[in-house]
C-alpha cells in the first residue's frame, strides 16, 4: 500500500472520529509511519498542523449543526471535544467571528474548512541532489525565538533575520564556519523554536542560546539559487516528492538550514537543508 493510500486511510479515521477522541498514535499507525513523521508531513503538505486541522473541522461541523438542528449548545460543546460551553464559545468565536447562538440566525456568514483530500500529481522531472550522511553530535549557538506553525511561520522567521542586529549576526558567524537556521521541532502547542546560529565547539557567550544536537543520520539536500525562493521550493519537494518514495521517515530531532558565504540573491548561491531521518 503506497503513501497516498496510507494518508487517505489516516484522514478517513480522523473524519470518522471528529465526534470522538482522536488517537494520534493510531493515526500514525494507520499511515504506517511514526507519529512525529506523520505530524511533520501533514503540517507541510496541508499547511496547518494536524491538531489545528482537527479543530477547524470540528468547528465547521458544529456550525452546520447549529444551523440545521435545535441541539443545545452545551451538547454540541461536548460532542466536539470541549469541556464547557464557554471554551466552545471562545473557540467558535475565534474561527467564525460570531457566537454559537448568533450562528443560528438566518443570513449569518460562517466559515467552512472542507475535508482534506489527497490526489496523485505527476512530479519528479526536476532532479533533487541529496546525500545521506551520518554526523556526530554537534552544538549550535545563537539567538532564538518561538513562533507559531499556524500563523505565518516563514514570514516570522524572515522578520527575525531582518531585525536581528548585524553586530549579533557577525558575532554568531564568528563562532563557526558560516550560519545555520535551526528548527527545534514542533511543540504540543504548535510552536517551534527557531535559531539563527553557528555550529561551533567554542564556549557559548552568556548573551546567546545553545542547542545540543545528537548523533544522527541526515538527508542533506543541496540547493543552488537565490534565497528564500530556492530553499522554499526544496522544502516543499522534500515532503511532497522525496519522503513518499525514499524509504526514510523524519526522525524526531531538529532540522537545519545551512547557508554559505556569498550573495543570497545570486542565481548560483549555495545552501542546504538537513533533515534527520531513520529507515522505515
Automatic annotation (TrEMBL):
It comes from Lachnoclostridium phytofermentans (strain ATCC 700394 / DSM 18823 / ISDg). It comes from the Bacteria. Residues 8-106 form the HTH araC/xylS-type domain. Keywords: DNA-binding, Transcription, Transcription regulation. PROSITE patterns: HTH_ARAC_FAMILY_2. One of its GO terms (molecular function) is DNA-binding transcription factor activity. This is Transcriptional regulator, AraC family. PANTHER family: RIGHT ORIGIN-BINDING PROTEIN.
Amino acid at each position: 500500500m503506497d503513501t497516498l493510500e496510507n494518508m487517505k486511510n489516516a484522514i478517513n479515521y480522523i473524519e470518522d472520529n471528529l465526534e470522538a477522541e482522536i488517537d494520534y498514535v493510531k493515526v500514525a499507525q494507520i499511515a504506517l509511519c511514526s507519529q512525529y513523521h506523520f505530524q511533520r508531513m501533514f503540517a507541510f503538505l496541508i499547511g496547518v498542523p494536524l491538531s489545528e486541522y482537527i479543530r477547524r473541522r470540528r468547528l465547521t461541523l458544529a456550525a452546520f449543526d447549529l444551523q440545521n438542528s435545535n441541539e443545545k449548545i452545551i451538547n454540541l460543546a461536548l460532542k466536539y471535544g470541549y469541556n464547557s460551553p464557554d471554551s466552545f464559545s471562545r473557540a467558535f468565536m475565534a474561527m467564525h467571528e460570531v457566537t454559537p447562538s448568533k450562528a443560528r440566525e438566518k443570513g449569518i456568514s460562517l466559515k467552512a474548512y472542507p475535508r482534506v483530500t489527497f490526489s496523485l500529481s505527476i512530479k519528479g522531472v526536476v532532479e533533487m541532489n541529496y546525500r545521506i550522511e551520518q554526523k556526530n553530535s554537534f552544538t549550535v549557538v545563537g539567538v532564538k525565538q518561538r513562533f507559531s506553525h499556524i500563523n505565518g511561520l516563514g514570514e516570522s522567521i524572515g522578520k527575525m533575520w531582518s531585525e536581528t542586529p548585524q553586530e549579533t549576526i557577525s558575532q554568531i558567524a564568528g563562532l563557526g564556519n558560516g550560519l545555520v537556521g535551526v528548527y527545534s521541532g514542533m511543540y504540543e502547542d504548535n510552536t517551534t523554536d527557531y535559531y539563527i546560529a553557528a555550529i561551533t565547539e567554542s564556549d557559548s557567550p552568556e548573551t546567546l542560546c545553545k542547542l545540543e544536537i545528537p548523533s544522527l543520520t541526515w538527508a542533506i539536500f543541496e540547493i543552488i539559487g537565490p534565497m528564500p525562493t530556492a530553499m522554499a521550493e526544496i522544502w516543499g519537494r522534500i515532503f511532497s516528492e522525496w519522503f513518499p518514495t525514499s524509504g526514510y521517515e523524519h526522525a524526531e530531532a531538529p532540522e537545519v538550514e545551512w547557508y554559505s558565504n556569498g550573495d543570497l540573491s545570486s542565481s548560483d548561491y549555495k545552501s542546504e537543508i538537513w533533515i534527520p531521518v531513520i529507515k522505515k
